[in-house]
Amino acid sequence: DIQAFLKELTESVSNQKNITVHLNSRIHSVNGSIGNFLTEVKKNGHIEKISHGVTILSTGAEELLPNEYLYGKNKNVTTLLGFEESLAKGDKRLKEIEELVMIQCVGSRNPERPYCSRICCTGAIKCALKFRKINKKARVYILYRDMMTYGLNEMYYLRAREENIQFIRYKKESPPTVKEKGNGLEINVLDTLLGWQVTLNPDLLILSTALIPSKENEEISKLYKVPLTPEGFFLEAHMKLRPVDSPTDGIFICGLAHGPKDIDEVIIQAKAAAAKASSILTKKELFSEPLIVTVKDEFCDGCAYCIDVCPFSTLKLIEYQWKDTVKKTVEVNETLCKGCGSCQATCPKNGIIVKNFSLEHISAMIDAAIGA
Fold it and tell me: What is the pTM of this model?
């Protein structure tokens, strides 16, 4: 019972004295780095500053509300989440349905959203099985491109076949068409396995729509300097070696913020992110990367070219009094620097270098390689 689990978890978090929950709040600004973040949270016009050592991004995802298949225009067309809600509330009208049709991959696995939402197929079959328990006589059809009930979820697919739930496969090039006919609906689809054109007249049409990233992701990405995938989800540092780390140290990603996945994977990833965060918070000291940049103050004239190209916001321009003049130079935040060398490649004065990778070092390596 997911709702009971969520209720218990929410109460546990709310009653934990070491956890502060900020509801109806927005992140106003973010500064600092691993071990020393400072986040300003805005609520009811007031700003509260929070000092913290690590950050976990878990912004969730949203259900796509489609503009196809008469959604929003016909009361007999709803989304999978809407249908699931009706089942949970025990809507008595469901017992009167004679024909139910589900269409999969609505708004996903297309040029705009090339990814699979992963939970739709299993979710649709689970809802179909639950519907079958309250309505034994209704005809149930699931129109799909590929049935993605991976892992142990395949058992739900087998049960659905046993319960006489019909599966009709269609191709991307020839999706189902839906139109109003009288007071009902008419669906036409080419069954690619049989090669037949099938016409259905459902009392209720369910659309399994794509999971889309949270609208807040773009803003949070800019605040925390964490890149996004082309689809708008947060990008991990390495798919296999660092799946919950972001490219920015001290910031971790979990759940649907990272991409579509089912609840088991969400919980596993959340535990992994918490474990990684704890491994930092339990340390008294953190050691910076050995390959970081250093400023050669005698050559730096404060032109700030390096600041603009730094992908990690490591550098800032400062001024100080030197003899009888005010000198400009660049200051390095060593906890943020990754030693990528973008600043060194941009500097026209050789005023900033990656330690042990000066132009002289690199030239000597090239000469040695050519000489060999």
Answer: 0.84
